[in-house]
Design goal:
Blueprint (H helix, E strand, L loop, with lengths): L3 H7 L12 H8 L13 H4 L20 H6 L14 H11 L4 E6 L6 H11 L4 E5 L18 E4 L2 H36 L10 H19 L2 E5 L6 E2 L9 E5 L8 H6 L2 E4 L11 H16 L27 H9 L2 H18 L3
Parallel strand pairs: 1-2, 1-6, 2-3, 4-6, 4-7, 5-7
Length: about 350
């Protein structure tokens, strides 16, 4: 039953409303807007009338990636059109096959921050290699809108464990690449010795040179990997002048307190987003989106804007125009020994085996 205070709130003594409608609200209601476009697709029978269903094994367009329930009911999920009607597993596998980007994202979960879901959603949009949740296993998934299903998400009990595991994995990849390069160089040296003094030449010299150059570039890329904390503290570097490495682990904190002291201690670099208003910081989810897109702008621009010579993948290997073996590679081949090659294999195997538990 309505009490006297409620009555006074609703009506004045003269029987008129205390709060008249805002004229903007009245005009907005009378505008007839908004009209939103339909998102997604309806059932297969409506969108493709008369066409065989792709989940029918006897159909000529049978495709195991399609989900029967979505074909029946329609697909209104927040996914790209090319993934309509696909199963979650099929979408995740396709993202993996296309190649995820080389940055990883870690979020501290000590306060059960509502922004974590938004960060995971952004990581999916920019195709981060991995998302790491640090702290309690349960995290606020509301803002993720189910995008975590298409993303590789790992949990870690502490920031120390995460950083140690990540650095060990990087070290394992370096050792594996060095071992592979040593093996190629060793076989090339053997081929060169076998053809020495004869009219023959070492087979596939140009192709092998390209492989060695690619491995050399990969090793340098891995050795430059950094742990990057995103926070505003004295001594931090402005993002606008920071050069993001290809391989990196970005650390994000919670709304309010930011990153923990241990996270800042373990970071190789601390980066902040320049701001020009009165507030000290922007929303944690927004800061994560800006940071990930900064990496995209620096490292994946070729995937977005085609160059004058045509669109090229960032993973395309550039082969040498000539087949001549340069003096620096000859020196590397001569410096490679069977003992060193064996050691490289052993180190790579050991470190990669250890990282399987991380």
């Amino acid at each position: 039953m309505r009490g006297p205070l409620t009555y006074l709130y609703c009506c004045s003594y003269e029987g008129e409303n205390v709060h008249d409608p805002n004229p903007i609200d009245v005009a907005a209601q009378a505008s007839g807007e908004p009209t939103f476009r339909e998102v997604g697709v309806g059932p297969w029978s409506q969108t493709h009338p008369g066409e065989p269903r792709p989940d029918d094994a006897s159909s000529p367009n049978y495709d195991i990636r399609f989900d029967s329930t979505l074909l029946d009911e329609g697909d209104r999920r927040n996914v790209l059109d090319r993934y309509r009607y696909w199963t979650v597993a099929a979408i995740k596998a396709d993202l993996d096959s296309r190649g995820r980007h080389d940055f990883e994202v870690a979020v501290e979960n000590w306060t059960h921050d509502f922004n974590i879901g938004s960060m995971v959603r952004t990581a999916n949009a920019f195709q981060a290699r991995l998302v790491h949740i640090v702290g309690p296993h349960k995290w606020n998934r509301k803002g993720a809108l189910m995008t975590e299903l298409y993303q590789h998400v790992e949990n870690h009990p502490s920031i120390t464990e995460l950083v140690e595991c990540w650095k060990l994995r990087i070290a394992g990849e370096i050792a594996a690449a060095q071992s592979q390069a040593a093996a190629i160089a060793f076989h090339m040296r053997g081929s060169a010795a076998a053809t020495d003094g004869t009219s023959g030449t070492a087979p596939n010299t140009g192709e092998t040179m390209a492989q060695l150059e690619a491995l050399d570039a990969k090793i340098a890329e891995l050795q430059a990997a950094r742990v990057i904390a995103l926070d505003i503290i004295p001594g931090a570097v402005p993002m606008e002048t920071y050069h993001f490495p290809e391989r990196c682990l970005m650390l994000f904190g919670a709304e309010g307190p930011g990153l923990s002291e241990k996270a800042l201690e373990l970071a190789d670099d601390v980066v902040y987003i320049s701001q020009f208003g009165s507030v000290r910081s922007i929303n944690a989810g927004a800061a994560a989106a800006v940071s990930m897109h900064a990496w995209i702008a620096q490292r994946a621009a070729s995937l977005i804007v085609p160059s004058a010579r045509g669109k090229k993948s960032r993973r395309t290997l550039l082969y040498r125009k000539d087949d001549q073996v340069s003096n620096d590679w000859v020196a590397k081949w001569k410096a490679t020994s069977a003992a060193g090659l064996r050691t490289g294999h052993e180190i790579g195997h050991t470190l990669v085996t250890q990282t399987r538990y991380c």
